[in-house]
Design brief:
Elements (H helix, E strand, L loop, with lengths): L1 E12 L2 E3 L5 E5 H7 L6 E6 L5 E9 L2 E4 L11 E10 L8 E4 L3
Parallel strand pairs: 1-8, 2-6, 3-5
Antiparallel strand pairs: 1-7, 3-6, 4-5, 4-7
Length: 103
């Protein structure tokens, strides 16, 4: 078994931050559905604007909001890439879902 990229959401911008809430990333529900990401799934977040990276869990909602300690790693307007992974048989030829969303 190996860990492979399941989905990649790119071309998105942070629409809100709140360091006082418990940590997570709120992802627009339509984006989550297109990428095959389910609520509470682990995601890796890459901040294209400043190079920061963090791991958190996804929750559905509107826009892209970063909560908790990770909110200190992003600013409203930063461009992000969100990655999700899955465990597959080593010989699997699965291909990731790539979702590009301008927001």
């Amino acid at each position: 078994m190996i860990i492979k990229l399941k989905s990649k959401i790119c071309d998105i911008k942070v629409t809100g931050v709140d360091a006082s809430c418990s940590g997570s990333i709120e992802i627009d529900s339509a984006l989550m559905k297109m990428a095959g990401i389910v609520p509470d799934e682990q995601v890796h977040v890459l901040n294209v604007s400043n190079g920061e990276r963090f791991i958190t869990y996804a929750i559905g909602g509107k826009g892209i909001h970063v909560y908790g300690a990770a909110a200190k790693l992003v600013e409203v307007g930063d461009e992000l890439i969100i990655l999700s992974y899955h465990l597959v048989d080593g010989g699997s030829n699965s291909y990731p879902r790539i979702v590009s969303w301008k927001c």
